[in-house]
């Protein structure tokens, strides 16, 4: 419930909760997975672009 209220996102690979404090929607989890904070889709570490959100 706390994660939902705080709008934390889960890593699509390891399912660990992450919290964005500032910056763009690109997140790199400690497991090494790069993903979009808005929709949790995996994204390229080179472009930081999400094809699902178009951001």
From TrEMBL:
GO terms for molecular function: ubiquitin-protein transferase activity. Pfam families: Rcat_RNF216 (PF26200). It comes from the Eukaryota. One of its GO terms (biological process) is protein ubiquitination. This is RING-type domain-containing protein. It comes from Aegilops tauschii subsp. strangulata (Goatgrass).
């Amino acid at each position: 419930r706390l994660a939902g209220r705080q709008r934390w996102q889960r890593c699509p690979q390891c399912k660990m909760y992450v919290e964005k404090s500032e910056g763009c929607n690109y997140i790199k989890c400690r497991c090494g997975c790069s993903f979009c904070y808005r929709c949790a889709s995996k994204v390229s570490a080179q472009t930081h672009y999400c094809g699902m959100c178009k951001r």
